[in-house]
Amino acid sequence: MVSRSYSNLLGLASGEPPALGRISRRIPRIMTVPGIISDIDDDPSESVCSDPSSSSQKDRIIMVANQLPIRAHRKSDNNKNSCSSSSNGWIFSWDDNSLLLQMKDGLGDDDVEVIYVGCLKEEIHPNEQDEVSQILLETFNCVPTFVPPDLFSRYYHGFCKQQLWPLFHYMLPLSPDLGCRFNRSLWQAYVSVNKIFADRIMESVLSLPETEAKVAELIKQYCDQGKIMLLGVDDMDIFKGISLKLLAMEQLLLQHPKCQGKVVLVQIALPARGRGKDVKEVQEETYSTVKRINETFGKPGYDPVVLIDEPLKFYERIAYYVVAECCLVTAVRDGMNLIPYEYIISRQGNERLNKVLGLEPSTPKKSMLVVSEFIGCSPSLSGAIRVNPWNIDDVADAMECALAMAEPEKQLRHEKHYRYVSTHHVGYWAHSFLQDLERTCREHVRRRCWGIGFGLSFRVVALDPNFRKLSMEHIVSAYKRTTTRAILLDYDGTLMPQASIDKSPSSKSLDILNSLCRDKNNMVFIVSAKSRKTLAEWFSPCDKLGIAAEHGYFLSLKGDDEWETCVQAADCGWKQIAEPVMKQYMETTDGSYIEDKETALVWCYEDADPDFGSCQAKELLDHLESVLANEPVTVKRGQNFVEVKPQGVSKGLVAKRLLSTMQERGMLPDFVLCIGDDRSDEDMFEVIISSVSGPLIDLRAEVFACTVGRKPSKAKYYLDDTVEICRLMQGLASVSDQMLSVPT
């Protein structure tokens, strides 16, 4: 049964007028029960909007997050009556720091209506929830959810922090000490609340008077005293690498005595979001390390490490960003981590901060970043010094490099970072996400969806509505009334099952191919990834059968013809690089083997453990792409194999060559059949379909591009398996035999 909340959201997304209440837009208590958006009367006559067309003129986007972009607080008694937004004395305003609110900037013009769904930061009494919901809907277009405190605790402090958060940080629950067992009630709480995290940005606070005052205070405290500030801003948890950062600072002071008395590391330790023994251990280790460093290198008026372990207001944190010469982020595991972005934006400053800093408006800005290679934003910040936080010496060297770097270099790095961060903001993300979503779903309305597989392998694929099973009657009818036919057949997975141990063709398959080849109106080709030696041996009984080996690199138009190449001769010197890598993976993956062809190398793992083989294949693919980056080859992964082959070689070349050869011989095909099962065969389908309106195929030609199995493909037809394909080919061969037996 579809919940009413779900149906209401579907209505909102479709642009239909939402039945959110009576004529005055009064709604009952919205989201008082987790997972149910409203208990609204479905009577369409009492809809808020009496004119459906007026609502349909706007695109509507529903943004769901853990917290609404709304600030709420009680009015004091002496001005309670002045509040016009709620008779219960609540004051509501937009939270300008909310990323959710800033996302609207990336949604385009005013024709987009945005509805926010989420929780308020303040707890609202049940007696007030109806009226608060009404105010937020009418004034801010917000639909609040009211989650009971005990449910919020189970969802956030329970499932999110105790189970989901450790897993996302590679902390597996291998023992009771390292994690809690799965708790279904916590999971159900998480599902009910349906939380999406939101973060804050800080541009608006740069101009606050409090920020300027704090910047002036820090300049007097550090810069005017000849000190250079290094800054760390991290949560006090086991993944942020605070202790590693402190050890690197200690190493810096030991290796570079000139830094003593001059360089100060200010470590802002934000309160841990989780609770437990590990947090307490991190705190104790941090305090003891700071104490040791300050006792060893400190002197009157100078502490090399300043630990701030109390909550800071946002403007205070911005002030530290503005003054810091370098920002250090040494997390051992982390997600995106917005600290480097906040630092870059803050260092760019504004006109008022320039006055506080004593800078001219035209003065180039500068910043330095030392970031862990294990955080999500590291690849985006190409000007940062990337480090392995576990390597203390490496981090210390990076800190010294950041301090000693020339001013023009610092300015260039900051300019590059600021240009990227200022253009790739959350509004840009929202806009590009919607573009991608629209592009992806553009054709879905006209596609048919199929459920494929069982259990964990079940998936839904969207296929073209014209994608259908190739019927025997249809193709036999076309085969009979045509006179010039081109037939291209893949081998593995098409004529021969992938799981077959003996890959050589059966006598039945050879008889079918011989029957087709004896028909002078046919030109039949086997297109395979196998070597030409293997294919020539297997299909030697078939006269007049064309063979394309190694994805079309080698070509034989007839069985007795000399082999030719579709592309220029390839230099296979790259094999000396790729083969040792493949051998290493072959030795560590039981059941795998290497197939050494004349122009290609293939690592096959169909006999290995499926899960382990797939994992090894992914790793091997990355490894080969790295070591062969400068070689003229292509590395690709297929069904149970990883292959390296020369660039430009594809089965599409074979299809084009066959059609061109037939045209040169005055044999413009009016029947084309192409059957294949994997990604390499899609190149053949593409060439054949694109040639329909060209000079290589008769304008009235019957074209059948057929894949094996129901899956997204350029082909318009499918057959379920190799058995059906052999049955189809047998039917065509029988027609040819009948035609040959009829006396002319």
Relevant CATH superfamily of the largest domain: Glycogen Phosphorylase B
> What would you call the shape?
elongated
CATH topology descriptor of the largest domain = Rossmann fold
- Helix fraction bin: 25-40%
Instruction: Please work out how many helical segments DSSP would assign.
Output: 23
Q: What's the β-strand tally?
A: 26
Given helix and strand content, the structural type is: alpha/beta
Give a quick account of the main beta sheet: strands, pairing sense, barrel closure: 9 strands, mixed
Average pLDDT for all residues: 80
CATH 2nd-level architecture of the largest domain: 3-Layer(aba) Sandwich
Rg of Cα set: 34 Å
Instruction: Give unreliable regions as ranges.
Output: 1-56, 79-87, 195-207
Separation of the first and last Cα atoms: 68 Å
Strand content is 15-25%
Total domains:
4
CATH top level of the largest domain is Alpha Beta
User: Which strand order spans the largest sheet, edge to edge or round the barrel?
Assistant: 14-26-25-24-15-16-17-18-19
Ordered list of secondary-structure elements with their pairings:
Blueprint: H1 4-14, H2 52-56, E1 59-67, E2 70-74, E3 90-94, H3 99-102, E4 112-119, H4 126-140, E5 142-145, H5 149-168, H6 184-193, H7 209-221, E6 228-235, H8 242-255, E7 263-270, H9 277-297, E8 305-308, H10 314-323, E9 326-329, H11 339-348, H12 351-357, E10 369-372, E11 385-387, H13 392-404, H14 407-423, H15 426-441, E12 448-452, E13 459-463, E14 468-469, H16 472-480, E15 485-490, H17 507-518, E16 522-527, H18 532-538, E17 546-549, E18 554-556, E19 564-565, H19 575-588, E20 593-596, E21 601-604, H20 610-627, E22 633-638, E23 641-646, H21 651-664, E24 671-676, H22 679-690, E25 702-708, E26 717-719, H23 722-741
Parallel strand pairs: 1-4, 4-5, 6-7, 6-9, 7-8, 9-10, 10-11, 14-26, 15-16, 15-24, 16-17, 24-25, 25-26
Antiparallel strand pairs: 2-3, 12-13, 17-18, 18-19, 20-21, 21-23, 22-23
Helix pairs in contact: 5-6, 7-10, 7-12, 8-9, 8-13, 10-11, 11-14, 16-23, 17-23, 19-20, 21-22
